[in-house]
Structure formats: C-alpha cells, structure tokens
Design brief:
This protein is mainly α. The chain contains 6 helices and no strands.
C-alpha cells in the first residue's frame, strides 16, 4: 500500500531546492506544495510546458495535498502511483518535444 505519497517525492523536492533558479522561491516542502497546488490549470500547463517546474513536481505537490486531507475523506480512491507515472510520461514527452496540451496537469475526481 502507498501510505504517504511524499515518501517517493522527497528526492524530487530535495532536487528542487538544490536548483539555484528555485532556491529563492521555495524554502520547504510545504511552500513547494502550496505554490504548485494554488496555480490555475493554465499556469500549471504553461509552467510544465516552459520547464518552470516538472510534471512530477506538480504530481508530488498534489499527492501531498491529498494525503494531508485524508482525514476529511474527500477522495474515495487515491492513485498517487498513477499520478507519478503520468507525470513521468508528461516530462518525457516535454523533453522529446511531444508534450500534449494538458499533459502534466493533474486531475482529481471526488
């Protein structure tokens, strides 16, 4: 079972914080998650497309938000592994120039 999505995303977050471009914007995991989960669909789409952040970073942020709200029973089914796999596909597509318009934008259905 996948108890906490952050377990698999910690390396991604530490990688974010090591990049000079992002050091001034992000000071910790909560700030990273908050910044990414408060973006609009268009901002996420454009940010992934432009390489401002990766689809995996977005997926990790949203997985963390879902895990943090677990006590609310807002989600019937959680699929963090699928979110990370889809994010990796989107990031690979971006690198190969084959990114689709909404690739990297997470989808949650309650």
């Amino acid at each position: 079972e996948f108890d906490h999505p952050g377990q698999r995303c910690s390396r991604v977050r530490s990688g974010i914080q090591k990049q000079k471009k992002r050091e001034s914007r992000f000071r910790g995991n909560d700030e990273v998650s908050f910044e990414l989960t408060n973006k609009t669909i268009a901002q996420i789409r454009d940010g992934v497309r432009d390489g401002d952040f990766s689809a995996r970073e977005v997926a990790c942020a949203f997985n963390d938000a879902v895990a943090a709200g677990r006590a609310l029973n807002a989600w019937t089914v959680e699929t963090p592994e699928l979110a990370l796999a889809a994010a990796d596909v989107a990031d690979n597509a971006r690198m190969s120039g084959e990114l689709k318009p909404l690739s990297g934008v997470p989808l949650g259905i309650k």
